[in-house]
Design a protein that fits this description.
two-stranded parallel sheet; phosphorelay response regulator activity; globular; protein-glutamate methylesterase activity; 344 residues; Rossmann fold; CheB-like; EC 3.1.1.61
């Protein structure tokens, strides 16, 4: 796979097998290297119905990836030569060029400095936007952040392998991740990310209390929630993880919406939501609920997504506060939370 990605970077690789339990480490490694997705082969029982579902998943995935590849090819052909450093010292990323056609009041970020330019820019205090990011709404940033919640699907293992090692272990808040993935694979993924990260990365366990500077990954094939209750004899609140086998939501288990809905109940404010590469609309309804509790939402830019489905759904619903490239996502999360860190 490494050789394929090196020699043919535009070739997408989708993996499938009939036994992912014994090959979990290899599957996760391939996904982190750049395989687009993994689809387990159907079990023998009710084979005809199962294979219909498998074919539908595969065809849908191939269609999305093919469309994404075509878009990237067109954009590459449309790119103009970079300006000479002797004639133009101002660097503006291709994504920022799109902002020129946006109405007055849109924030435009100049990549070299992070300083805003343009007519009537929206003013954001404290944590500046990172170079290359785009503000998509003038919503005020919460006074402090108490939790980071990440939702991701197709292309997620590779994206998380880029994001997680870039997060410092001093953020002071718990980080929760829902990655659409079958049972057993998330165990290997948590181990792999733990080796790459400054954080402690664990699979979520039912009943465990949330700790700051720990990353909790939803177990494959199960929903993960966050619940709260008052600690006996005090006014302090305990927040702990719940794991359940409730029916799939948005055809997913684990589902981002399930986690997000629970966070809307478990926290009164200070939720940083991050929606990354993936197909579908999982996360939109949960973000709508969290917005009533002081939620700020980052979405991954289209240019850096394997499949621009989940982020697009959030942007189209006007719930995204910033669009951030993958290679700058860790920096932006760190800037927001470090400046406005909560208690977890």
């Amino acid at each position: 796979l490494k050789n394929i990605k090196k020699s043919f970077p535009d070739v997408g690789v989708i993996m499938t097998s009939d036994d992912h339990t014994s090959q979990a480490d290899q599957i996760i490694q391939a996904l982190q290297i750049g395989a687009i997705d993994y689809l387990p082969k159907p079990l023998l029982q009710d084979k005809e119905k199962a294979y219909r579902g498998f074919r539908l998943q595969l065809v849908t995935l191939l269609g999305l990836v093919r469309g994404r590849k075509s878009t990237r090819t067109v954009k590459r052909l449309q790119k103009k030569p970079a300006p000479s450093p002797d004639t133009d010292k101002t660097i503006i990323s291709p994504s920022i060029e799109k902002e020129k056609s946006k109405p007055i009041g849109t924030l435009v970020v100049q990549p070299e400095t992070g300083i805003s330019f343009g007519p009537s820019p929206v003013q954001h205090d404290a944590a500046k936007t990172v170079p290359g990011s785009r503000n998509t709404s003038p919503v005020c940033i919460p006074f402090k952040f108490n939790v980071v919640a990440i939702g991701v699907s197709t292309g997620g293992p590779n994206a998380l392998a880029d994001l997680v090692p870039g997060l410092p272990n001093s953020l002071g808040v718990p980080i929760l991740i829902v990655q659409h993935m079958p049972e057993m694979l998330t165990t290997s993924m948590a181990i792999s990310l733990n080796k790459k990260s400054n954080h402690s990365v664990r699979e979520g366990v039912d009943g465990i209390e949330l700790e700051p500077n720990v990353i909790y990954l939803a177990p494959g094939g199960k929903h993960m929630t966050v619940n709260r209750e008052k600690k006996p004899g005090s006014n302090q609140v305990k927040r702990y993880i719940g794991i359940n086998n409730d029916p799939p939501v948005n055809s997913c288990r684990p589902a981002v919406d399930v986690l997000y809905r629970s966070l809307a109940d478990a926290y009164d404010s200070g939720i940083l939501a991050v929606i990354m590469t993936g197909m579908g609309m999982d996360g939109v309804k949960g973000i709508q609920m969290m917005k009533n509790k002081g939620c700020y939402c980052l979405t991954q830019t289209e240019e850096t997504c394997v499949v621009y489905g989940m982020p697009r759904s959030v942007v189209d619903a006007k719930l995204s506060d910033e669009e951030v490239p993958l290679d700058m996502m860790a920096e932006r999360i760190t800037a927001l939370v470090s400046t406005r860190g909560g208690t977890g």
